[in-house]
């Protein structure tokens, strides 16, 4: 067990300007409270208030990043912290930037022979007929840059494809179509070298969208996930490899679909997952007997080690 004083002065970064600001405010408040309970010298900081200059003025010894989405999870903040010489939690510049880009993440996974659903980039003048012929229906249309399922839709007909593209294009300059995997959804949390137990996410609508994530009360989280031990081990190892493939470090979460034949398909990597006390990573940690405060300390402790990726 590390002592609180080892960390020096810690700033928890939360809020920010991304579409996920509201979620981040909750994550940050939970992390801040946990570190206070552990006796760490900690202060919360919202980059939307004073930018980088404000953070520098606080002169923290290290930073806990509880920001989600652009400007916090996408490598830009990580680059700034590298230049300022301030250690921070989670993945470095490369993995953060890559994880934010779902399509280029898939290219890396494909190059390494890791399973991920086939996808195609969409443009305003795409040949919709051809896209449908190549990916089949239904298919998924999503903005390439990750966010809490904003702008994502399931497309059931060729006619709906173009409007789904237009909807996604409101959120992002780059939009992709992806083969739809019918089956079960899992998410696997990674903490340092450890793979935490998988969680099966069950959504009555079949679509874990913003509503299902943050508002619905019929979204169910199965933990233990219900897979046989050998399959869960296979899933865990796949996610560990997927996270390592993009250079992920410290902690993170990988989303996976399992088709009706039992094959796993990597969907995306999250390098700064939610950290409210009922978020997925804390739930997985709790299942191993690790409480929220201990989890937060362990994530923070990864900043004491030199980076590898
Ligand atoms: N290829 C796919 N097949 C089936 N469902 C998918 C697929 N891609 C995404 N989904 C569904 O959409 C949800 C959100 O997609 P995801 O790429 O994880 O975006 P976000 O960054 O918003 O979490 C997933 O949790 C899953 O329910
Ligand atoms: Mg996701």
TrEMBL record:
Cofactor section: Mn(2+); Mg(2+)
Pathway the protein acts in: Cell wall biogenesis; peptidoglycan biosynthesis
The organism's place on the tree of life at top rank: Bacteria
Subcellular location: Cytoplasm
Record's keyword annotation contains Acyltransferase: no
Occurrences of domain ATP-grasp (ranges): 106-301
EC number: 6.3.2.4
Keywords annotated in UniProt: ATP-binding, Cell shape, Cell wall biogenesis/degradation, Cytoplasm, Ligase, Nucleotide-binding, Peptidoglycan synthesis
Entry function: Cell wall formation.
Recorded family membership: Belongs to the D-alanine--D-alanine ligase family.
Protein name: D-alanine--D-alanine ligase
Source lineage: Bacteria, Pseudomonadati, Pseudomonadota, Gammaproteobacteria, Oceanospirillales
């Amino acid at each position: 067990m590390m002592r609180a004083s080892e960390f020096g002065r810690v700033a928890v970064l939360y809020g920010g300007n991304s579409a996920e600001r509201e979620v981040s405010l909750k994550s940050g408040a939970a992390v801040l409270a946990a570190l206070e309970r552990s006796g760490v010298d900690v202060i919360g900081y919202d980059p939307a208030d004073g930018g980088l200059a404000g953070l520098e003025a606080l002169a923290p010894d290290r930073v806990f990043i509880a920001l989600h989405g652009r400007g916090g999870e996408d490598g830009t903040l990580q680059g700034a912290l590298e230049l300022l010489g301030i250690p921070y939690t989670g993945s470095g510049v490369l993995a953060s930037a890559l994880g934010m880009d779902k399509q280029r993440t898939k290219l890396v996974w494909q190059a390494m022979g890791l399973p991920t659903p086939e996808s195609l980039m969409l443009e305003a003048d795409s040949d919709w007929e051809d896209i449908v012929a190549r990916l089949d229906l239904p298919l998924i249309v999503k903005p390439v840059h990750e966010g809490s399922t904003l702008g994502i839709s399931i497309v059931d007909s060729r006619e709906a494809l173009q409007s789904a593209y237009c909807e996604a294009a409101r959120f992002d300059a780059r939009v992709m179509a992806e083969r739809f995997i019918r089956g079960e959804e899992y998410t696997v949390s990674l903490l340092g070298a450890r793979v935490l137990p998988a969680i099966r996410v069950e959504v009555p609508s079949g679509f874990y969208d913003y509503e299902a994530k943050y508002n619905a009360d019929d979204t169910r989280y199965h933990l233990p996930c219900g897979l046989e031990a050998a399959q869960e081990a296979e899933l865990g190892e796949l996610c560990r490899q997927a996270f390592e493939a993009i250079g992920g470090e410290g902690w993170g979460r990988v989303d996976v679909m399992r088709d009706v034949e039992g094959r796993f398909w990597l969907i995306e990597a999250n390098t700064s997952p939610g950290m409210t006390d009922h978020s997925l990573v804390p739930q997985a940690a709790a299942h191993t007997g690790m409480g929220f405060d201990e989890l937060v300390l362990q994530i923070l402790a990864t900043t004491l080690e030199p980076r590898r990726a």
